[in-house]
What does this fold into?
Amino acid sequence: MKPSAKAPSRRERPLPDLADRLRRRDRKLTGQRQSILNILVRHAHPLSIREIFAELEPGACDLATVYRSMHLLEDMGLVKRFDFGDGAARFELLAEGADEHHHHLICTRCTAVVEIGECFTSEIEQRLAAQNGFTAITHRLEFFGVCPRCQ
Amino acid sequence: MKPSAKAPSRRERPLPDLADRLRRRDRKLTGQRQSILNILVRHAHPLSIREIFAELEPGACDLATVYRSMHLLEDMGLVKRFDFGDGAARFELLAEGADEHHHHLICTRCTAVVEIGECFTSEIEQRLAAQNGFTAITHRLEFFGVCPRCQ
DNA sequence: TCACAATTGCAAATGATTTGCAATTAGGAC
DNA sequence: GTCCTAATTGCAAATCATTTGCAATTGTGA
It folds into this structure.
């Protein structure tokens, strides 16, 4: 491994309680995890693994470690995974505790993303659950179109 | 190739106008395409490539050909592609001309699929388009949950 | 300062899907 | 029915995203 090759810039510790949340689960606060989170903090939009990896300082973190970290962060509820249908998962940082359920409007040409705060399907979910005997219903909803700049 | 090794059963020509639709585009009505379509006709639910391939008579059609055929059928508007988020595309036959816009309720345990005829997002689409200057808006919406049998 | 589980890098393995290429074939023309 | 040619196919190798085995390394609590 290359432990000390990690961090030039020193503005780590993105989420104030990050260390605690990790510790609570017997996980370690490693340099690579901090680097990844810093990148997520700087971007409001969903990032693909490859985008995250590209922003990491060269040698800061292995690609496999990014994948593993995203799984961990997802399990911990720190990030939310999105699937825009292009074969690559995207991740967005979730604020502490907040549920942050929302959707996206994605440009099919340039992949620009507009966040849509509202969600209009909860009643529908209830009804579907009742009608079909399903439980634990969730949904995935994304909108696609051509953004103003790409028209 | 194994041309004559194709078809034991002889109830081909699934869609009455299939040949015409293909011809119109300078495409050929091959045995493998008929076999694939026959399978789709027999199943009302979205099938993955692997499921389609498994139902083909052994040696009837190469896996690569199934992939290529699904692209062709999709381009021709004969099938609709779905993404349930498990990394494998699914395809469902579309009836002639019909738009058939609909969604699914998928069991996260056994992958059972319930078709949901209604779609409730058109007004929302309109609004999103107007608010964000997007055009050609479409959406992907799937529900997930645990079906009665898996609870 | 220690011990040990958690973590990481690296490389190889997966799994879905695509593609190059030479051989084959469907379908229109004669 | 026979030809001709572009469309199609099988096969194998190539991609791409993601995962995993393993030995070396490092946070962390004691």
Q: What stands out?
A: Chain B is about 35% helix and 20% strand. Residues 1, 3, 23, 28-30, 49-50, 63-64, 67-68, 87-89 of chain B lie near DNA strand C (CB under 10 Å from a C1').
